[in-house]
Design goal:
CATH architecture of chain B: 3-Layer(aba) Sandwich
CATH architecture of chain A: 2-Layer Sandwich
Number of domains of chain A: 1
GO molecular function (chain B): ATP binding; glutaminase activity; phosphoribosylformylglycinamidine synthase activity
Strand content of chain B: 25-35%
Structural class of chain B: alpha/beta
Number of strands of chain A: 3
Keywords (chain B): ATP-binding, Cytoplasm, Glutamine amidotransferase, Hydrolase, Ligase, Nucleotide-binding, Purine biosynthesis
Strand content of chain A: 25-35%
CATH superfamily of chain B: Class I glutamine amidotransferase (GATase) domain
CATH topology of chain B: Rossmann fold
Strand order of the largest sheet of chain B: 2-1-3-4-11-10-9-6-7
Oligomer: heterodimer
Number of helices of chain B: 5
Helix content of chain A: 25-40%
Number of domains of chain B: 1
Shape of chain B: globular
Largest sheet of chain B: 9 strands, mixed
CATH topology of chain A: Mth169, Chain: A
Radius of gyration of chain A: 16 Å
Order of helices and strands of chain A: EHEHE
Catalytic activity (chain B): N(2)-formyl-N(1)-(5-phospho-beta-D-ribosyl)glycinamide + L-glutamine + ATP + H2O = 2-formamido-N(1)-(5-O-phospho-beta-D-ribosyl)acetamidine + L-glutamate + ADP + phosphate + H(+); L-glutamine + H2O = L-glutamate + NH4(+)
Low-confidence stretches of chain A: none
CATH superfamily of chain A: Phosphoribosylformylglycinamidine synthase subunit PurS
CATH class of chain A: Alpha Beta
Largest sheet of chain A: 3 strands, antiparallel
Radius of gyration of chain B: 16 Å
CATH class of chain B: Alpha Beta
Helix content of chain B: 10-25%
Mean pLDDT of chain B: 96
Pfam families (chain B): GATase_5 (PF13507)
Low-confidence stretches of chain B: none
Distance between the termini of chain A: 11 Å
GO cellular component, one term (chain B): cytoplasm
Number of strands of chain B: 11
Order of helices and strands of chain B: EHEEHEHEEEEHEEEH
Strand order of the largest sheet of chain A: 2-1-3
């Protein structure tokens, strides 16, 4: 069993109103060092695949099929082997 | 006209659409998202709302509902497909219309009546807007109505007359203030404003009526040609 940790964010060219609102709020809280904020989505998906390569391929496939809209979003995937309990 | 209004889990403008279509004498039926055959209908309407809770992205899950295969098939045969608000979002996610609807530029949900310009009066959905003025008012109600598409797509939309409606002012940050577009062949339309909420004198706005008159005229003309 593998766990795919998938992070989806907007492409840099796409305006992220949530990120902008959070950035403004952080400025109000006087976090002067903050220069940009991007809000994304995080998924953990358990896969029955027995080797990491096929688990990664399945995670990539399902991400592109459903989790992102390729017009505006990009993603990165980290694979974890699930330790048997 | 036999019209289908698709009900996805979370659709909430389905009854408004049904009511409006009945008002124009359409033989209208609700069809669930599980249906796989729409061949009996002349036109299909994807109503506003929050299909599947708008989880993941607006329209992203509805796109894979069984009925969408039938909607694609209808579009391919040249029948009319109308997506209003969430319906527009579903049509873009399904790739039946280009671009994507994203969070409004100014944070939050907008519920308002806004001025719109009809930029193409030759379409199946706007041919009865025959008054000298091309500016109308329609209700909008959306949190994710900012139309986004790359430059090449936007240029193509303009060149082909696929931009049908634009906001008279910058309402939500949409590129070129685009509020509604058709596909290349002109039988599929998506728009964020709600013409179905503007068909009653009693409610103070009838600017949506020519939208329905247009598509009815289109279907009747088509039937006459085919007969």
């Amino acid at each position: 069993m593998y766990i795919a940790q998938i992070t989806v964010t907007y492409k840099p060219s796409i305006l992220d109103p949530q990120g902008e609102v959070i950035k403004d709020a952080l400025a109000r809280l006087d976090y002067q060092g903050v220069t940009s904020v991007t809000q994304g989505k995080y998924f953990e998906i358990k896969l029955t695949a027995t080797d990491e390569q096929s688990a990664y391929e399945e995670a990539t496939s399902l991400t592109e099929a459903l989790l992102i809209n390729p017009n505006t979003e990009t993603y990165r995937i980290t694979m974890l082997a699930e330790v048997e309990a | 006209m036999k019209a289908a209004v698709i009900q996805f889990p979370g659709s909430n403008c389905d009854f408004d659409m049904y009511y409006a279509l009945q008002d124009f004498g359409a033989d209208v039926q609700f069809v669930t998202e599980k249906s796989t055959d729409l061949s009996a209908y002349d036109a299909v309407f994807l109503p506003g709302g929050f299909s599947y809770g708008d989880y993941l992205r607006t329209g992203a899950v509805a796109r894979f509902a069984p009925v969408m295969t039938a909607v694609q098939k209808m579009a391919a045969t040249g029948k009319l497909v109308v997506g209003v608000c969430n319906g527009f979002q579903i049509l873009t996610e399904a790739g039946m219309l280009p671009g994507q609807l994203m969070m409004n530029q100014t944070p939050g949900f907008i519920c308002d009546e806004v001025k719109l310009t009809i930029t193409n009066r030759q379409t199946a959905f706007t041919n009865q807007y025959i008054d000298a003025t091309t500016t109308i008012k329609l209700p909008i109600a959306h949190g994710e109505g900012r139309y986004v598409a790359d430059d090449a797509t936007v240029r193509m939309l303009h060149e082909n007359g696929q931009v049908v409606l634009t906001y008279a002012t910058d309402v939500n940050g949409s590129v070129d203030q685009i509020a509604g577009i058709t596909n290349r062949s002109g039988n599929v339309i998506g728009l964020m404003p709600h013409p179905e909420r503007a068909v009653e004198t009693l409610l103070g706005n009838t600017d949506g009526r020519p939208f329905f008159e247009s598509l009815l005229a289109t279907i009747i003309t088509k039937e006459t040609v085919e007969a």
